[in-house]
Amino acid sequence: MSERATRGRGRASDDGGGGSAAPTPGKRTLTQEMRGGPPVQLKRADDATADTTASPAATGDLCPDPAEQARKEAFTQRTDLQVIDNVPSPGTGKFDARYFPRLGLMPVTVKIHFDFVQADDTPEGKDLLDRIGSGLGIAQFFWTDAEKADFQTQFVARCTAKWSAQHTLRSTRPCWSFIAVPLVSPVPVADKADAHYAITVHKSSGPGIDYKSGLGREQLSDPTAQPTGDLWQSDVQEEGDAASGDVARDERRRLERALRAAHARHIRFRRNDDQLDPDDLARLAAFAAALHKANPSAPLIPIDVAGFASAEGDAAYNQGLSDRRASNVAAALTGAGVRQPVRSTGHGEVGAPEDASKRRVDISVDHTFETSYTGNRYAVGEHELGHMLGNLDEYRNQTTGATGRRQRRYAALVRSAGLEQPAWGDSTSAIMSIGVDVMPRHYVSLWEALGRMTDPDITQAQWSFH
Known about the structure:
By secondary structure, the chain is α+β, with helices and mostly antiparallel strands.
């Protein structure tokens, strides 16, 4: 007797359940962000200004209490909301921030004094003279004024474009319908005393990217100290293949953990059946929700769906049955809107006849993808600005000592904002790991600064990520 499909259990659902589409990477134009209001168009990222024709507050509901409505209207007109030399509560980072309720804009500035120095491998004395005498040239070791200006221009433009308007903060206070769109920009300053950061920029003699940059630790022990750091000329370049294999490997491991947690590695079927029951669909929905949580630039690793049938009966029929089982599982995942490729294959009958364990679909994550993936991008300068805003390295799991305490404080701040903390120690496409994606958690120090500016009118807990 063949393992023939029966009817009456319902079709595989297209409703995959939890999760939402991942945000589009890169700088966004803010349109129709204000509930019920006209569109707001951001200018170029290096302009750090915006055109607007209506107040976000004007688009919200009127407060039922006239006194509260008057207070809200007064808040709308305020132009004095600011924090100067703001140090986030985890104890790292420093910046100025302002908030303009009527415009819904939050300019954030990091003032940097750049001190340009020659390349670290510059020949000295006689070796330098010998090089000149032999006609080899020495231009690669020393800055020109044009190169200094170009570095500052590129650093400002790239960091502003990367960090501005990536996420929107929204007030949840009833009838106070305000938004805050952070516009982040580093600002070069000539006077070192006026700077948040005193940065030494080393000439890159080339070729390639130096990958030596880092910030000093002065402020970590003394919040009043001026933090310092070192950048290199090559830091304004983007690497197009940066630790791609590591990122793909850790993303594959994340998906495998999610697959196990959803109990979806094996989907069982009844004899002669190819349809998914509600429990199957729930497990697949849980796995799909985890797939949706991939970073915007994370590698899209193929998901393999393999169908099987038990060995009794006609082999050709059982091949088709295994095909349909795999196809229905794959359809449930793709119907849930997962971005990862889903590859469906039927393997026909396996094992001994009447072996119920063979009436199944196995789901796995491809292991060969990471051996050839080359698409992970990374830019040092944009990563280092993230530190200036108060973020920590996510590719490290800092569990002990002062670094461990800062990580715990940072993780607590992220959780208090209602966000997921990073997978410490993993190589990911997040900008504070080894990628380019500015995730909501990377705005947590801006969220904290916003609450500091607007309290008590809008408290910290009344700002949420949109």
